[in-house]
Amino acid sequence: MTYPNAISKPAASPTILLIGGSDSSGGAGLQADLRVLSSYQLAGACVVTAATAQNTGTLVAVQPLSAKQVLTQLDAVLHDLTIHAVKVGMLASPAIVRAVAARLRQLRVPIVLDPVLTASVGGALLAPAARQLMLDHLLPLATVFTPNLPEVGTLLGLPVSSLSQRRTALRCLTDLGGHWVLIKGGHGTGKRLLDLFGTRSQTFQLTATRLPIATHGTGCTYASAIAAELALGSTPQHAIACGHAYLQAALRQPLILGKPAVYCPGFPVAINAESRHWRGLNAV
User: Fold this and answer.
1) What is the pTM of this model?
2) Is 240 a member of any domain?
3) Cα(154)–Cα(159) distance, integer angstroms
4) Which active-site residues does the annotation give?
């Protein structure tokens, strides 16, 4: 193939492997992941784990794919594409957790694991039997693990209302094999939300004003922005700070869906991969 208007053959676009569920409302799941990558001008390869029938108010049904169907998608993608980072979301079943872990063990790229347990509108998205499997088989593979407060409470059986309790939970998750753990504070209370993140040896916090709106797809957006940053060469610490800043900007340029309205992170700006401007990291 020739490229008459180019000096040389263009380089392949950095590609993120997205593993997760399809949201029929378009607000969360793989649909939200792809919006983030569009802002970053990155490519996204999608491996669907489940189809959800939902809108902005109700989760109607969840139909997981079989582990074989998920593996077929993964093998097709990995055979052909060069993957620069992986973002894992909804996994639905124990068999899918095992299948995804088996393939990700073969990769040597950054992995962001977002443990999607329930839908924003309520309803389980991960079978209870799969929770421990995820901690045992996927958490040690993840560069960054991104649970929200309810997910931390469910996975560890610990209270997480205070900052000291969240610190304890973060240490527990790193003891279980987590490298960088981000405990998202969006489900907390108060005018300011606080995200706590770190490793066994260091912790940081990020704060933001809590917006008085109902949201959908924020966790997917946050994790995908972190994955995009990692694919572009950011350190985990910087990628998390950038993901936080991206999410706050996206919530101020929202997509407004449904009746009553929910706010989905939109397109804050088309981000040139060579000149990103997200900052905001504060040491604890």
Assistant:
1) 0.91
2) yes
3) 9
4) 184, 215, 217-220
